[in-house]
Amino acid sequence: MAKQEDLFKNVVSHAKEYGFIFPSSEIYDGLSAVYDYAQNGVELKKNIRDYWWKSMVQMHENIVGIDAAIFMHPTTWKASGHVDAFNDPLIDNKDSKKRYRADVLIEDYAEKLNQKAQKEIEKAKGRFGDAFDEAQFVATNERVKGYLDQKNAILQRMAKGLDSGDLADVKALIEELEIACPESGSRNWTEVRQFNLMFGTKLGASADSAMDLYLRPETAQGIFVNFLNVQKTGRMKIPFGIAQTGKAFRNEIVARQFIFRMREFEQMEMQFFVKPGEEMKYYEYWKETRLKWHLSLGLGKENYRFHDHEKLAHYANAAADIEFNFPFGFKELEGIHSRTDFDLKAHEQFSGKKLQYFDTEENRNYVPYVVETSVGLDRMFLAVFSKALQEETLEDGSTRTVLRLPSVLAPTKAAILPLVKKDGLPEVAKEIVEELKWDFNVAYDEKDAVGRRYRRQDALGTPFCITVDHQTLEDKTVTIRHRDSMEQQRVAISELRTIIANEVSMRNWLMKM
Fold first, then answer.
1. How far apart are CA 446 and CA 449, in angstroms?
2. Which residues are annotated as a binding site for ATP?
């Protein structure tokens, strides 16, 4: 646990030191759970967004994108259920005065049981080797079975309490499990109560006539209210999808873990409209497809797992999370939900407008069902960044910090470095920058010894360093150094564009899906 905490601290400090993420309004001591993406962070974030958009919209003929406004008519949120049901169950510790989400406290306890079971499984794998049958071991080993049964029973009881509104039983569960405040170790808890997460604001010229509005807590509703507009103007035929990326806002009382849970964040969502009765087929399709997208980035299959929801949202008939192994354990990265026809029917009811699709093959109107994929862009950033950050011991005993970002996402694709600041080398290096910048985000660096410049680019996640030396003046070749292997090659300047393109091309990375 201490090692994980140290890793997470390194992630946070590295993000600031190398210009990826700054605390918002830092000169005024910051603002809790609000962050600014710095010069390198904004590039990485943009590249993640583009990688998602290309795979989701450009590569699917039946998916289009929109960009709906953050402000929406307030009845939108009544229809969606957010006014009445968008709550977190909160509990305070009377001694530490710290506030927590009751469901997160219980889920963290259950995850510890799961980790104990996994530890037993790993030990058995080591003992039995290739002959190990994991499924049989889990089914027959009393200790493992006990851990997993207890975990499932706890989560089911919590889900039942939250679904029925029996918050007293949720508190009773916390007390029975003897869950203590992570900060003080105290078990002196208040009652559990619900807290609505939406930010309220006003629209209008004066306080008397202003309309009460909300900052949107999700981007999905902008898609639903535009369903018919997109379907008719795009002549879309079921099944089809509408994608969107954009900011959302939640008044998270227990915001924590850096950019994992923030009050202002960005989502990448796609709502896929299908014929009623076919939603489960597409639910399974999108679960598989979205996991393949994550795996294409090469962060390690062992760092992902599916978690099927015990507690379903009011709009869903099936839901699963793709969880990622963050420095603080497995947590939700992306949600795939079968939302039924709840949203469109609710907006029909509250708006008085029909939101139906006329199926020419069946010669009838119906309200489509919806399968949603929703990934947090900030969480995706944290997943990629935290897994990429590594401390490496070299053959000579020295160490280097390297940010092994997938090259397709790296903020800067290549750094061009003149060996010395004289003899015409900077001029040639700048000519290479001028040539490459049309196709790639590149950097020029002439300060310090070339070895130190290599180390800086390693820490920034730059896949290639291109060194211009005196031989370059003779034969128009340069040294290209690869970040991960530190291998160096002598190549012609004319070959640089092709070498970099082959490594950073979205096409090549998405073809892995």
1. 8
2. 250-252, 260-265, 332-333, 376-379
